[in-house]
């Protein structure tokens, strides 16, 4: 009977094991025990992962000996990639140390620079000593002959390494899913870069346009044929999903405005970077160091007013601003020095909208105030000036002499001023109940659901040009600071055109805990003693108790 029970138990165990394996093979589930659900993929990421039907290899360069904060970033990156790989075996990843086998660190850094993946130099505090380490916070995802770079570290002005890593971990799922999105899905949507109204030249928007080309088809578009064949011009414009107006300086005709209005009525989306004041820093580089800021009339007042906003011909003077770089000396003795310049606001984010969540400050130059008006459209202020702002009317003389003067803080009392406003909903035509400039077929007075983003400064999209080559948008070449202009604009375009909801991943909040470096250094020896001696004491107590137990058991 005893043997029968044994065989029965063995049989039941075998049946249970087989059943468990069958269930595991057919039902897949992972449990995330973290409080913030950091390892639970968002629906948009899951959709991208499930559509990856070809092998994708992700090579991560975040490997080597570096500070604890970056070890945390490496570990979080590994765990996030494991989560992606667990849901689709086509996704593989490896970690590589670019500096292994005693490679020349500077030569390796130059190679990464050329590929558009600049390394990060970080300060290492260990045993009370300070040193510098080179970190390569990048990954490259490859599918067939397609490659996409993945930035793993977010730069934030004035942030500590802990703050930078914490911000980077927040965006890990987004940057990885975004890279997979580029590889898995072919480009479908089309963007028109508007021309013909004195917009910025190609070289000064090249950085952003090059980035957009990774997601969308891009083409220039002009409204020059509007007076001759407006119907055909409108039909051609409707083929694009979004238009970009990058700092127009010439007034729009009624024909052009009507075409743009009907494009919006047909559901077209638009990104306007326009300003109501004519002023450039280059105009100050004269013997007097002075220039006049003058109102600029683009004949768009009624256009934006009908949609519920107004761009006022005033300048934003903001204490929280980026410096102006001025040269001193001559020849080899030339020095470039930063000075306070309150006409270059560094904008804040008054809400946690996905477009501006967790991005660096966006740099404006001679920005204007935007008023929001009452209508049925939903209006979201994405960017605004700081509370210490002064609104200045125009015409106004601007002088470089202000860099040497202390600002009168008492006069900066106008509060936060909207600088970028997102409009969403069903738009009403500018020409409803008005005489149309020309007749077109199927004229619309009400749009379907669509979006429009209006930014009161065209220079937000403008990149510097050095030796005929465009520099990275947002990069200040003399100080090395990087502003969030490109990330902001890219998020905005993705938000307006993204059907998969990928941009929503940016709203995910993750809490990262770090050790206190000072406290760690002060209590290092205490915890070393505890970690060495305490386990030995516990082991000794266990051995003593076990020995007593054996004596009592066998003495009986």
Please, could you describe this protein's structure?
Keywords: Membrane, Transmembrane, Transmembrane helix. Residues 188-492 form the ABC-type uncharacterised transport system domain. It comes from Salegentibacter salarius. Pfam families: ABC_transp_aux, DUF7088. The chain is α+β, with helices and mostly antiparallel strands and 556 residues long. The chain folds into three domains: 1-30; 36-184, Glutaredoxin (3-Layer(aba) Sandwich), CATH 3.40.30; 190-499, no CATH class. The chain is built from 13 helices and 24 strands. Strands 8-7-9-10-22-21-18 form a seven-stranded mixed beta sheet. Helix 3 links the parallel strand 1 (56-60) and strand 2. 37% of the residues are buried.
């Amino acid at each position: 009977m005893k043997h029968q029970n044994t065989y029965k138990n063995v049989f039941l165990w075998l049946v249970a094991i087989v059943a468990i394996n069958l269930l595991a093979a057919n039902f897949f589930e992972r449990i995330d025990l973290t409080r913030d659900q950091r390892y639970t993929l968002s629906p948009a990421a899951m959709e991208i992962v499930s559509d990856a039907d070809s092998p994708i290899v992700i090579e991560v360069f975040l490997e080597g000996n570096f500070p604890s904060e970056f070890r945390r970033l490496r570990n979080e990156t590994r765990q996030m990639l494991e989560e992606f790989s667990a849901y689709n075996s086509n996704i593989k990843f490896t970690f590589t140390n670019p500096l292994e086998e005693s490679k020349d660190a500077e030569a390796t850094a130059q190679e990464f620079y050329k590929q558009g993946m600049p390394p990060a130099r970080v300060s290492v505090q260990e045993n009370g000593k300070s040193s510098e380490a080179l970190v390569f916070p990048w990954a490259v995802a490859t599918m067939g002959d397609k490659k996409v770079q993945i930035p793993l570290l977010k730069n934030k002005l004035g942030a500590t390494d802990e703050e930078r890593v914490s911000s980077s971990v927040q965006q890990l799922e987004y940057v990885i899913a975004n890279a997979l999105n580029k590889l898995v899905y072919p480009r479908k949507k089309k963007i028109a870069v508007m021309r013909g109204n004195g917009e910025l030249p190609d070289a000064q928007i090249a950085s952003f346009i090059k980035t957009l080309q990774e997601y969308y088809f891009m083409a220039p578009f002009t409204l020059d044929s509007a007076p001759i064949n407006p119907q055909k011009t409108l039909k051609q414009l409707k083929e694009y999903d979004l238009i970009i107006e990058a700092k127009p300086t010439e007034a729009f005709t009624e024909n052009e405005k009507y075409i743009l209005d009907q494009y919006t009525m047909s559901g077209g989306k638009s990104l306007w970077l326009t300003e109501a004041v004519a002023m450039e820093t280059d105009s100050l580089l004269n013997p007097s160091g002075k220039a006049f800021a003058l109102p600029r009339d683009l004949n768009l007042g009624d256009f934006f007013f009908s949609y519920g906003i107004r761009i006022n011909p005033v300048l934003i003077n903001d204490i929280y601003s980026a410096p102006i770089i001025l040269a001193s000396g001559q020849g080899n003795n030339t020095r470039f020095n930063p000075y306070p310049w309150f006409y270059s606001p560094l904008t804040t984010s008054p809400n946690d909208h996905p477009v501006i969540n967790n991005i660096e400050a966006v740099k404006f130059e001679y920005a204007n105030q935007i008023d929001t008006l009452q209508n049925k459209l939903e209006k979201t202020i994405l960017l605004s000036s700081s509370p210490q702002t002064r609104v200045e009317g125009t015409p106004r003389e601007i002088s470089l002499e202000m860099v040497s003067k202390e600002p009168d803080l008492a006069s900066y009392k106008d509060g936060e001023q909207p600088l970028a406003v997102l409009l969403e909903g069903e738009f009403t035509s500018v020409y409803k109940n008005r005489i149309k400039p020309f007749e077109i077929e199927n004229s619309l007075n009400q749009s379907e659901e669509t979006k429009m983003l209006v930014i009161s400064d065209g220079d937000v999209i403008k990149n510097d040009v050095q030796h005929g080559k465009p520099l990275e948008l947002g990069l200040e070449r003399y100080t090395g600071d990087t502003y969030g202009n490109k990330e902001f604009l890219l998020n905005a375009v993705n938000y307006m055109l993204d059907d998969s909801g990928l941009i929503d991943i940016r709203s995910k909040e993750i809490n990262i805990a770090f050790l206190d470096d000072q406290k760690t250094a002060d209590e290092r020896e205490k915890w070393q003693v505890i970690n060495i001696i305490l386990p030995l004491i516990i082991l000794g107590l266990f051995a003593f108790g076990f020995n007593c137990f054996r004596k009592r058991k066998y003495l009986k």
